[in-house]
Design goal:
Helix content: 25-40%
CATH topology of the largest domain: Rossmann fold
Structural class: alpha/beta
Number of helices: 13
CATH class of the largest domain: Alpha Beta
Distance between the termini: 65 Å
Oligomer: single chain
Strand order of the largest sheet: 5-4-3-9-10-13-11-12
Mean pLDDT: 88
Strand content: 15-25%
CATH architecture of the largest domain: 3-Layer(aba) Sandwich
Amino acid sequence: MLKSLYHGFVPDLQTRETIWFARRAILSRSRRERRGWSAQFWASLGKPQKLVRTGSRRLLVDLRDLVVAKELWSSGEWEPSETAFFERVLRPGMTFVDAGANLGYFTTLASGLVGSSGLVLAIEPEPLNFALLEKNIALNRCTNVRSINAALGDSAGTARLHLSPTNFGDHRLASESVSRDAVEVRVDRLDSVLESMAVGSVDCMKIDVQGYEMHVLDGMPRLLAAGIQYLVMEYWPQGLRNAGSNGDDLLRALQTHGYTASILLEGGVLQPISYDGIGSLASLQAGDDAFVNLVFSRADKASS
């Protein structure tokens, strides 16, 4: 097949890559593998934005993103444990904050779960992700969502967001990412955002900010003290250190405000764990990229 395609001309590198991706997609035995190679095929043609279906929702993804977008394109799923957890705990009338909303997978999921009487705040700093987020909010008719094009931090201002060319969920404010291309983004404190929008309380919050979690917590002391029923985050000690903080300070801040910790397991199940036990988790011993998904909760905020 390749010989016939090459006959009579010498393809450039980009054309050879496109042919290679097409060939691998055609020869793949599983649907998942076939969709994975076809993602790279469409991206190589300069047509990376495609619609995917996940559950009852449709999402516009950019297939140059080889992580979130590629997984949604390949399987129609993303973070099944977190998805199952939110489907279990979010109910009509709740307020949900999606910090690091990316293209809006969890934003649109939460929108349907909290219903017209609830509210979702979707916060995303990166321009391309934010454009996809807004399109997906409109595509799924999420009238209970307010989107904010900013990063969250401990003070208002601007900062350099260092971009990953292949993982659109791995853009970082952390200063260790100086070798990447960067864009300047607005930064705000979550307490200030909530005050400006007259939002008095938050029931559930997801923080996915690639190591900047401690800075986000430092910008929401009033909310932390008031209490959030569920706070879901990726606990990544090396990422926290890259951003100038550390895991001990983050855990101490949450413990001080009365939050208990649990590991988020398959199926959205919570396994309680002591704060002392978090540092000894096997999943955190694998190296600099080791992380674990944790849920912090306040018993006094639990619904009856």
